[in-house]
Amino acid sequence: MMIMMASKKQNKQIGNLGEQLAANYLKKQGFSILNRNYLKKWGEIDIVARGTNKKVHFVEVKTVSHETREDLEDSVSRETWRPEEQVHERKLHQIHKAIESWLSEYHYEGDWQTDVLAVRMVPREKFATVNLIEDVL
Prior knowledge:
The longest helix has 21 residues, at about 10-30. Residues about 1-5 have low confidence and may be disordered. About 35% of the residues lie in helices and about 35% in strands. The radius of gyration is 15 Å and the shape is globular. A five-stranded mixed sheet has the order 1-2-3-4-5. It contains three helices and five strands. It is of the alpha+beta class. It has one domain (about 10-135): 3-Layer(aba) Sandwich (Trna Endonuclease, Chain: A, domain 1). It starts with 7 loop residues before the first helix and ends with a strand.
């Protein structure tokens, strides 16, 4: 298995592409995108979306890039480089603080949940897989 080491600029580009793929995926699932990259100095929410059930979903997107589809499939079969595992306790705490800000700022008092959307992609082959993990908090 070949692991790609990327520069900060490449990581940002991969992350941005992953967030765009995630937003497109959510739209296809019937979600309405309310905000992208809601940023406060104490945390960020990648995507805020309203589901078909009217519940607001705060979505953390984690992306990993592979050189080839074979590398991606090998990684999945071995359960290595799982992007969703990068959402650790400290990150969840930052997200929760940003969610509190969003709820206050938008005076929202309805149902909501926090989700993680893991994107694995092969940019050269324009191939990606998406895994939505719901209600992680």
